[in-house]
Amino acid sequence: MNAISPLGASDLQGWQSRGWALFPGIIGTDELARLRKEADRLWDDQGLFAARGSVPNSPTRSDRLDPFIDLSPPFANLARDARLLAAAGSVLGGEPQLMKDKFIFKPAGSGGYAAHQDGAYWQDLGLELSRFLTAFLFLDDATRENGAVECTSGQHDGLLTEPGVMADPAEDQLSTFATVEAAAGDLLLVHALTPHRSGPNRSTSMRRALAFTYGVDARPDLYSVYQQFRQGSRN
Questions:
Q1: Other C-beta atoms lying within 10 Å of the C-beta of residue 128
Q2: According to the model, what pLDDT value does residue 173 have?
Q3: pLDDT at position 78
Q4: Chain Cα centroid distance, residue 170
Q5: pTM of the entire structure?
Q6: Which pLDDT score, from 0 to 100, does residue 235 have?
Q7: Edge-to-edge strands of the sheet including 196-198?
C-alpha cells in the first residue's frame, strides 16, 4: 500500500467545506491484484451473501457482505491498516478507530443506493457524528456508468431528517450531487453527515468497493460497541 501524503491546507479546507475528499492511488498494482483475488474467493461462496446481505433498517441486497472482515484475514488487516487510519485521522483531527465494515460488489445490472446520511442510522450510539466518516476503497474503477458514489457538498453540518428517526432526506432537501469518479486503488472519504448515493451498474463488469467506517470516540473498542448495537437492532 502506498503512503498517505499529509493533507495540505487547501485539501483540508476542501474537506471541511465539501464533506468529502478523494485520496488517489492508495493501493498499488500488486496489492490490488491480491485483494481482487481475495474478493473473487468471497464472491464464489454465494451462501455468504444470503447470510450477510440483510442488515437492520436497510433493504436486503444479494451483492453485499455486511460485515465481512471476519471472513478474510487480508481484508481484516486492511481495515486497520495504519495508512487508512492516517487518512481518516488527517481529516477527523484525532486517532480514529474502526467502527464497521461492508463490502459492496455491485455486479453488472445491480441497482444503486438511494441518497442517505450514514449518521442518521447511528444516532442511538451516542456518537459525535462530526468525527465519523466512511472510507470507500475501490477495487475497480468507479465511473458514472457503473454506479460511482455521488456526494452533495456543504450539507454535513447536521441531520437533514428528524432527530431520533432513522430516515433518509427528501430529494428537495439536497443540493446538486457530484459524481466522484475514481480509479481502482483510490480512497474516498465521506463525512458521516454528507448525503450520498450511487446509481445502478450499467456496465458489463463489477464495481467493487470496500466501505470502512472510522471515528474518534473515547470508548476503547468501538467495533464491538457497534456490533452489540446492531445485534440489539435485530431483536
A1: 13
A2: 94
A3: 98
A4: 21
A5: 0.94
A6: 53
A7: 113-116, 196-198, 149-151, 178-179
Closest CA to 138 of 76, 201, 185, 178: 185
Instruction: Give just the sign of the alpha carbon dihedral 118, 123, 125, 130.
Output: positive
Note the pLDDT of residue 2. Answer: 47
User: What local confidence, expressed as pLDDT, does residue 234 receive?
Assistant: 60
Beta carbons of 114 and 150 less than 8 angstroms apart: no
Does a cis peptide bond (omega within 30 degrees of 0) precede residue 67? yes
Q: Which residues contact 132 (CB under 8 A, 6 or more apart)?
A: 92, 99, 118, 119, 122, 191, 192, 213, 214, 215, 216
Q: Would you state the pLDDT for residue 30?
A: 97
Helices (H), 72-126: 73-79, 82-92
Q: How far apart (Å, rounded) are the C-alpha atoms in residues 142 and 188?
A: 11
Rounded CA separation 122/226 (Å): 9
Nearest-CA neighbor of 100 among 217, 211, 192? 211
pLDDT of residue 3: 46
Which residues lie closer than 8 Å to 60 by C-beta, 6 or more apart?
Answer: 53, 54
| 3-state class (DSSP) for residue 202 | coil
SS3 content of the chain, % helix, strand, coil (to 5): 35, 20, 45
Query: What pLDDT sits at residue 10?
Result: 59
pLDDT below 50 — which residues of the chain? 1-6
